Design the sequence.
């Protein structure tokens, strides 16, 4: 399945907003089967910070592991945030 | 003749916003070496600013050299002494909701004036710093709740300040041996903090530093009696003559 992050907003910057988005996704969007692939589509997102991404992507990564697929993006803040999260793991 | 070319470039950038070297070559009709000599001189005088690194470089008009005695001074007073006599009420974001609304507006304003890469990067940096204040001080503000958030797009400056517990207090929770404010800033800006205490917080300033350097911006961050200054690729930690109990950040872009 594919999650379009722009449906959570174009400016994704705070921890509480990231956490709220994750809880909503877990309840209503994410598949129950952890073997299903989950694609994250960043199209339409303008600002992504490590705080928001850590609250949203980190728990999904823990649950779905290699089945979490981050689709490519040219946005500077998305690229920088994803690189940064990799660095601090 | 050379001065005329310099003035022409400054006037063009002031009127039209960011331009690439290629666009400036077309506009000035001079050779590339002559253009880069001019740009170097103008940057040395503080009349223009270079943002980004090759192949994505833009030059902007900069009025850092113009008289600027008041911008931010009232926030500095507030950050150091709690003197809010000169603070406009609209600068204070008491809650995160208010900050988020103003941050959304900042993003829209930045998009109108600057290229997308710069607009998104500056918004991400300001968002990370402003939200950090709420993440680390919620329910634990020193006296005034919330943050001051000043945006001046003409002077290409953003100032954020809080009357929270400061960086040393946060860092000591994960590194109890941290001796002083300067050490705390050095850790916050350069070392990856692992483990969850209770969450993986405390790494946001490294993201800020990385993006300030990558985009050739500048930042001055005060906490306690220490400062961290990042300009281009240089990062310096210094003792400050000001005591800022919470934090104060000045971003120039």
Sequence:
């Amino acid at each position: 399945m594919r999650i379009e992050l722009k449906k959570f907003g174009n400016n994704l910057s705070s921890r509480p907003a990231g956490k709220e988005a994750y809880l909503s996704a877990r309840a209503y969007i994410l598949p129950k089967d952890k073997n299903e692939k989950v694609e994250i589509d960043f199209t339409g997102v303008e600002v992504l910070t490590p705080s928001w991404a850590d609250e949203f992507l980190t728990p999904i990564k823990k649950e779905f592991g290699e089945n979490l697929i981050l689709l490519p993006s040219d946005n500077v803040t998305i690229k920088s945030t994803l690189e940064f999260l990799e660095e601090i793991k | 003749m050379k001065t005329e070319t310099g003035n022409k470039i400054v006037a063009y950038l002031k009127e039209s916003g960011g331009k690439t070297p290629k666009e400036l070559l077309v506009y000035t009709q001079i050779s590339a070496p002559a253009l880069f000599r001019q740009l170097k001189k103008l940057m040395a005088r503080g009349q223009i600013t270079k943002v980004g690194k090759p192949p994505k470089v833009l030059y902007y008009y900069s009025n850092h050299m113009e008289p600027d005695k008041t911008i931010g001074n009232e926030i500095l007073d507030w950050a150091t002494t709690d003197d809010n006599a000169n603070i406009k009420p609209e600068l204070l974001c008491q809650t995160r909701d208010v900050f988020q609304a103003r941050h959304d507006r900042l993003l829209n304003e930045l998009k109108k004036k600057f290229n997308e890469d710069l607009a998104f990067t500056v918004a991400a940096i300001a968002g990370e710093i402003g939200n950090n204040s709420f993440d680390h001080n919620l329910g634990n503000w020193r006296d005034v709740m919330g943050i001051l958030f000043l945006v001046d797009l003409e002077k290409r400056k953003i100032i954020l300040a809080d009357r929270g517990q400061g960086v040393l207090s946060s860092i000591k929770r994960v590194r109890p041996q941290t001796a002083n404010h300067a050490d705390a800033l050095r850790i916050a800006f350069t070392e990856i903090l692992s483990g969850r205490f209770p969450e993986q917080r405390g790494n946001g300033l490294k993201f800020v530093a990385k993006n300030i350097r990558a985009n050739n911006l500048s930042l001055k961050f005060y906490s306690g009696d220490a400062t961290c200054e990042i300009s281009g690729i240089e990062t310096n930690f210094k003792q400050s003559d000001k005591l800022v109990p919470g934090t104060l950040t000045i971003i120039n872009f």
Remarks:
- Chain A is about 45% helix and 15% strand.
- The CA atoms of residues 66 and 89 of chain A lie 16 Å apart.
